Amino acid sequence: MTYQAFYRVYRPQTFREMSGQTHVKRTLQNALLANKTTHAYLFSGPRGTGKTSAAKIFAKALNCEQAPTNEPCNECATCISVTNGSHPDVIEFDAASNSRVEEIRDIIEKVRFAPASSRFKVYIIDEVHMLSTSAFNALLKTLEEPPPHAVFILATTEPHKLPATIISRCQRFDFKRHSTNDIIERMKVVLEDINLPYEEQGLKVIAQAAAGGMRDALSLLDQVVSFSGEMLQLEDALLVTGSISQETFYDLTEALKAKDVAQMLSLLEQLIADGKDPLRLSEDLITFYRDLLLLQTSDHLAELLELASPDERVVALAHDFTPDMLYGYIDILAKTQQEMRFSHHTKIYLETALLKMVHFSGGVSPVTMATTEAVVSPELAQKIMSLEQMVQQLSAQLQLGAPSQAPNVQQEQRPRAKGPSGYKAPTGRIQEILKDATKQDVQRIKAVWPQVLNQMQKSQSALLAEAEPVAASSSAFVLKFKYDIHCQMVADNQTLKAHFTQLLAAQTGTTYELLCTPEEAWVKLREDFIREHGLQQQKETQPSTTHEVELLEPPPTETAEEPFIDDVQLLPSQDPLVVEAEKLFGKDFVEIIED
After folding, report:
1. Where is this region: Disordered (predicted)?
2. Confidence (pTM)
3. How many H-runs (helices) and E-runs (strands) does the chain carry?
4. What kind and span of H or E run contains 545?
5. Torsion angle defined by CA atoms of residues 277, 278, 284 and 288, in that order, rounded to the nearest 10 degrees
6. Among 71, 378, 432, 533, which has the minimal tally of Cβ within 10 Å of its Cβ?
7. Contacts with 187 (C-beta within 8 Å, 6 or more apart), sequence order
8. 3-class SS at 147?
9. Are residues 150 and 107 in the same domain?
10. What is the spatial distance between Cα 327 and Cα 361, in angstroms, rounded to a whole number?
């Protein structure tokens, strides 16, 4: 007879043989006994947790000749034919290979016919999430109101891919991952049946590698049994599953505690050379340090240990670290593990994580603390003592209500005063620009101002909408802001300033330096500049030589908004915006209104 894998030979045939899933078994058995079974069920959960096996057992119990019963007898003709897969009224349908709407229509047409030799016609649709949208739509009405003799059992590992309309028409059962103890107990049954002695630590390694899947565990057990000789040993399980022994983890952690980088990296290199996966190695290290935390917490948690065993050496090693240290190691490995999933150089990531762990100082054990105190220099100890005394003096002064002032400590120099908005305008630099400012430079910037704003993002141009260039030299210009907060935001945003000057350079051919100032500061700065340089007396004595310009009068109040351009300002008829408007619409259609 052809050899069959363990997971096929030892598939459970009754609810009693199923491992775990108590909530599913009890609900279905109670419904069978009370004859209150419904027409549609949804079994969801990870792979290898017993969804298809439970569906077959439920189908046998529904059609068993001894029904109503909570367990199939597995002796009548109906139970035997369902177990063999030859019963005409229990139809298994693989949606992964039959996802088209035509296959579902074939089911819908045949479901109306009465069962051939049993009470119910049971359809088990595996991997139902693979059906197409049109197939789901075709199944919907039949699933909601099937004939009284039809029962649908849908199984899936990804229930989130099912339409809500399908889920709402089913009784849903969520299968959970099997615990390590459940998997070990099932493997013991298999090994006792084939009369093969075993080491329980080897079974624990297999259960850890299976990650909660019974089918994966039995497949790995089949491999280990084929590899082993007369006994299943721990070394065989480690070699087949690619896991690492506790002794290796102990040596690696000892090297980490001693900060022996050479020994630690040598052990890692040997593990990689033996074919160990760095990603799997990081997972096992996290599990090992989790076991050390459990050993620190209590001596009664041995049953929860995954990789470590509660012997004296491991317990002593666990108490050499503080919980903060172990938490830090787990955090470093977890973050590295996420980065390793997107890289082909996983070994380098793991080496870097181990080096981080060597230099990590999140906590020190009492033994290490005593050793560290002897290494501290006398100068550092004296500084620590003086700081402790200072803290005590400050605490005493605060309790007595005295002002807190540290003795013999020089007060830091106060920062320079800022304006109401918290922004300090570069007054000195602006004064230098005003000395070289000309009407032509500021007029050139104003002429291209609308085009530059249109090329910027809306969020950036909104900050400059209320701004205005008020003075310019050949290499820099001053931008006055109506609102102080906008001035602060633009001055602090180096990316915006760089982008703006690039756009301005593309329009004018000159790269200007941008200086920001609030409106209030600009008014005061302009008054000071006029007073210091005597420009007002010059303007009062010199007559106007052209009708295109007029002398700039000193601002009567701080709200004056006339732009400073060297020492003149444009008449409204010469404003670049007015000139541009006259070009577009003609002079007859442009009317200038003075505010």
Report:
1. 402-425
2. 0.55
3. 27, 10
4. none
5. 140
6. 378
7. 203, 206, 207, 217, 218, 221
8. coil
9. yes
10. 11
